[in-house]
Amino acid sequence: MKLDLADIEAMDRPALVKVWEGMFNTSPPHRISHRMLKLMIGFEVQAQRHGGLSKTLKRQLAAVRAGKPVKSSAAGQLEPGARLIREWNGVSHVVDITEDGVMWQGKRYRSLSSVARAITGAHWSGPRFFGLRS
Description:
This protein is an alpha+beta fold. 46% of the residues lie in helices and 16% in strands.
């Protein structure tokens, strides 16, 4: 049965439990709320439809399970306060690494790649654009 998110949203608890049991081959946790059932089933439907978790995220989750520290991005590997400078089309671009992301021209970005895209107008690997990767 192919489920849409709208189908899941309209289901009552017994229907959600039946879907859960079909997806996970087990009963849902005893005290899980109706809303949480919807959210978790909806997540699983989307993950199956779009290929699941990325290899990077799976590797990071495995590291967390093993109790190892995880660096989520090239910006995460740089210490807050680090400054990157890249010349592009004759203009020098200065990017500052902060505790919660990247600052460029007074605006906060999630990643170096989003800054590289803003600078160039094209998709770039941020770490590669800023010379952190070859």
